[in-house]
Amino acid sequence: MLVRNILKEQKTTFSFEFFPPKTPEGWDRLFLTISDLIPLKPSWVSVTYGAGGSTREHTHNLVVRIRKETDLTVVTHLTCVEASRGDVAAILERYDSEGIHNILALRGDPPLGQREWKAGPEGFCYATDLVSFIKTRFPHMCVGVAGFPEGHPETRNRLQEIDHLKAKVDAGADYIITQLFFDNRDYYDFRERCELAGITVPIIAGIMPIISRSGMIRMAELAARARIPAPLLRSVQRASSNESVERVGIHWATEQVRDLIHNHVRGIHFYTLNNAKATLKIYEALGVADSLQLT
Ligand SMILES: Cc1cc2nc3c(=O)[nH]c(=O)nc-3n(C[C@H](O)[C@H](O)[C@H](O)COP(=O)(O)OP(=O)(O)OC[C@H]3O[C@@H](n4cnc5c(N)ncnc54)[C@H](O)[C@@H]3O)c2cc1C
Q1: Which residues span the domain enclosing 73?
Q2: Contact 176, 201 (CB under 8 A)
Q3: CA 234 distance to own-chain centroid
Q4: Ligand 1 atom closest to the CA of 269, numbered from 1
Q5: Is the pTM of this model over 0.90?
Q6: Residues of the chain under the 50 pLDDT cut
Q7: Predicted pLDDT of residue 294
Q8: SS3 of 105, please?
Q9: Is 126 touching ligand 1 by the criterion CB < 6 Å?
Q10: Of all residues in the chain, what percent carry a pLDDT higher than 70?
Q11: Could you tell me the distance, in angstroms and rounded to a whole number, from the CA of residue 240 to the centre of ligand 1?
C-alpha cells in the first residue's frame, strides 16, 4: 500500500525505522525485533540507506526480504550520494519491478572526508531534484522527504530553509518525516512555520528514545542540532546505572508521544535502532497494544 493512502485512512500513523545490519547475526536479531514489533501493527516500516550509499545492496535486500516475509508496508530510503541519474534510475526500476513503491527521497550527507556537499557527475544537487525525478519517471510511486524542526546545519537562514522544504513538496513529496527532537515545542513551531509557508502535506514526528549515555552523545553528533533539554540532561546525569538511563529516556519519549498525540500529530516515526524494547515500552505505557487505537 502507498503511504499516502495509509495517511488518508489512519488518523495517526505509527511507523518504525530500521537499518541494514552488517553481520548475519545482526540480520537474525533484526528479524526477531521485527517479529516482536509486528503485533503493534505499524502503519509502515522503513529501511535506511547507509551514509555515502555504503549499504545500497543491503538496503535493497532488507526491503525485499521484509516485503516477502511479512505483510508490512515497507518504505526504502534513497540518497543522491555518489550516484548518477542513471544509477538512481536503475535502483528505482529494480524496486518498481519488485513492487516497492514507497521511497523516502533524501540528498544524504557528503561522503566521509568531504566537508561540503557537491553533487557528483550526472548527479542530483538537492533532494528536490530527486523528488522531481521520481515523480516524473515513476509517477505511481509515493515519496516522502526529510524535515528539520531545529534547522538543517547547512542552511543558517531559517526562512530560506522552509522555502527549500516547500520546493520539495511542490516537486511532489507526499509527506514529511522530521529529524529527531526532544522538545515538542520545536516540532509545533516547525509545523506552524510550514503551515505559514503553505505546506499542507502531513508532517510526521521523528522520535528516538535515549537508551544509553553513549547513544545520547552519538545522537547529538549525528543529528547535528538535536538539543537535549536541561531537565532531560539532568535526569540522565542523575541516573546511576545503564538501566536507569534507559528508563529515563523511554519515559521522556513516552511523554513526548503522549503530548504529540494530544496535539493532533499526523504520525509518529520511531527511530528504533533495530531494537524493539523502547517502542514496546512506550506502547505499553500509553496503555494500548494496537496502534490504530492510539488516536
Ligand atoms: C527522516 C530522515 C531519514 C533519513 N534517512 C537517511 C538515510 O537513510 N541515509 C542517509 O544517508 N541520510 C539520511 N538522513 C539524513 C539526510 O540525508 C541528511 O540530513 C542530509 O544532510 C540532508 O538531506 P535532505 O534530504 O534533507 O536534503 P535537502 O532537502 O537537499 O537539503 C540539504 C540542505 O540543502 C539546502 N537546500 C535545499 N535546496 C536548496 C537550494 N535550492 N539552494 C540552496 N540550498 C538548498 C537545505 O536547506 C539543506 O540545508 C535522514 C534524515 C531524516 C530527517
Answers
A1: 3-294
A2: yes
A3: 27
A4: 1
A5: yes
A6: 291-295
A7: 46
A8: strand
A9: yes
A10: 95
A11: 37
